[in-house]
Amino acid sequence: MTDHQDPASSPDAPVFTMPSVTLPLLDSYTYISPTPSHLPGNMDEPCVLGVDEAGRGPCLGAMVYAVSFCPLSRYDEFKALGFDDSKKLTAERRDNLAKVILDSQDYVGWAVKVISPQDISTSMHNRSTLVNLNQLAHDATIELIGKVMDERINLTQIYVDPVGPSKSYQAKLSKYFPGVQITVEPKADALYPIVSAASICAKVTRDQILEQWQWTEKGLDCSMDFGSGYPSDPNTVKWLDRNQVPFFGYPSLIRFSWKTIHHRLVTTTCEWSDDEEAAEKKPRKSIKRLLSTETKQDSHYEKGQFYKSFRLASVAL
Question: Where is the RNase H type-2 domain (predicted)?
Fold first, then answer.
């Protein structure tokens, strides 16, 4: 995991790119905006902070958690900027509000935690440290709030759009941050402008990472028309149908821990490289069976970036 403070640069970057976008996405990372210029001389000034996320449901791409904060003395001014739940806004309106946040950094601060699809899959598949989505969400939220406090920001009020039961989550956060007034409330992104701003930071960051996605797998030439990433999206289903990679299934854009992806992998057959005559007599084997066979085989696929991405190694069985 790495922290990034500098804006990402890319020759193919659009006119507007959030400084929280870093590509290619090889690892999870945290981005923190500069401390608002209003605060260094007023570090004891009470501040309000909001938390929200984007990308929890899709089967591909990053999951992004975000916080935004400002001095309570300027919260009315902040409310007048016109923030609302990012899901209710057009992409153009979200981009415009993200620019407003950047233009208001004299008193508005924000941060994001970008969790890569590889880390999501690894966390949810690792038997020794099994982590579910709720735990990932809690860890990201606690990390972001902690990093803001590390900058000596005096947080006195925190509003959170919840993941899981609100009461237990609020109690958990209160243990980590005693003395802070914490409100965990469903639909907080539509009720509290400071949470709405966090929602926009999260959504715009995730969307721009997907729009500018850089394939790290050597020789891979996949379409970028993967839709919203939700398993119910026809464009996403079409992309999954057309871009399955032999043996490995899918590139690292995909969250392998999603049931939709797991089902596709265990029901997909793969041609095995026996001699032609013997192959005609044998049924094709599923990838699951292929990987568990006791027969040593030579791969027909280049042992390149896929092996590195999925941390694979050839072994004698």
Answer: 46-270
